[in-house]
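Same chain as my last thread, 524 residues:
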Amino acid sequence: MTAAHLPPLSASTTPESTSPFYPGEPYSPTATPESSPSSRSLSLSGSTPTPSRPLSLVNEKIFDTPLDGPTRVGSPLEGPTRVGSPAPSVYEEKLKGEVVADLEKQGYPVNTEESAPAPEEEYPEGGLRAWLAVFGSTLVLLCTFGLSNSFGTFLAHYKTSQLASYPPSTISWIGSAHLFVTFASAFNAGVLFDKGYFRYQLAAGSVGWLIGIFSLSLAKTFIQIFLAQAICMGLSLGIMFGPCLSILGTYFRRRRAFVVGIAASGTAIGAVVFPVLLGRLFEEKGFAFAVRTAGFVMLALLVIANIVIRPRAISKTVVRAPLASTLRRIARDPAAWLVYGGIFGTYISCFIPLFYVVSYAQKYSTNAAVATYSLSIINVLAFFSRIGSGLVADRLGTFNTAIPLSFLVGILTFAMIGATSTPALVVFLVLFGIAQGGWISVSASVFMTLANDVSEIGLRSGIGFFFVALATLIGSPIAGALLTATNGSYVAALCFGGGMAMVGTVLLVFARGIQVRRKSSSVV
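reply #2:
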């Protein structure tokens, strides 16, 4: 049969076929050789044909292995995709350009003339493993930060027993160093988390924490207590607490702030339980027995946490970009620096009342119970606000929730100056417990919102918690120096804390403006 006798091909007679260039996709007769696998090029422009959730920064593995076929680059942005918009945002173009530059340096050819859609990264948003991760993370924070926030109980005991010969300012460095080592370790912990070492981090952190608490029960001298409580327990907590929050960000996106708030509420529970438990046992059974009792409770809870928390298997379409490349991109991101500066300022304000509220209440309240239970009042209210702030943040946006809470922390720090009567002090304790509890919960989610995809969550959180470490290291000592310089007056110290929170709030407002422009939405 000659060509003239062949029947014509048409849409109605041509059978369905598969594209020779992209297996599984309909064949297009207009396909060009440039779209074939042999071109080994990247497509970076074009319109988005269908609405989708955020795509990962790079959706094919191009950094670790040679390119064997067409590699597609998706949208790096979080948030809704504008349906039918043929033109990407300015930020999207800029970020794609940075990716292209990194690829070209590594010798990969890049074609920016066309684009193909990439598969989107899905978040489970629930399920047994996801909620078990929430439960386990809550137990970890209950055991660890719950005890860390009970340092005032240890301080009161040290002043009358093992460390009676040391001034309170020297003893307080144990608590400050513990928090600094904890938060400063979070950066390396975030890097390891992004590389997939979560299970090892949780196990090593749990073992180290238990070694520290049982060693503390035997400690007699300042250096022994410092090594056990500040160094050993601080490093162990730093290894695992950030990853325990970051893992929730891999399971949840829409309800991320809510589940982080649930996990953070474990801190408030521990900060209520441990002061009561230790305070009673210190008097009845002695320091060693009390600390060992707390240690055995922690042993049981941490074993459960290690069993129930399982890391999520990240989709193979999400590429873990080289660390140096990611750090360069973060360093060039103005929103990141504004967020970290805002977090730094507000956390300085948070810790000053927490460190000095007991002595402040002893000075100004005529009710001894108010001074004794001042921290417990704050932590009870913080339990509810940490969960509630997460619910609000998931509806209104993380920045939209964090900024008012940051402002409220600053205002209440200033207001503490006037809380010089028992009724006024009780009102302050209630309001500050709500504000600082909600702030601490939402601030962890703020770090995660900056990540382009799940492969950056641990690193972003680690950098953010390093700035928290700086705030814990310098904030309270500066406030203590101001107290000494003003002969015990709290006015200068509280004005310093309130002013830093106001600066932090302003920086967060500017960061929010950048995020609004990037996502084309006011719900950020």
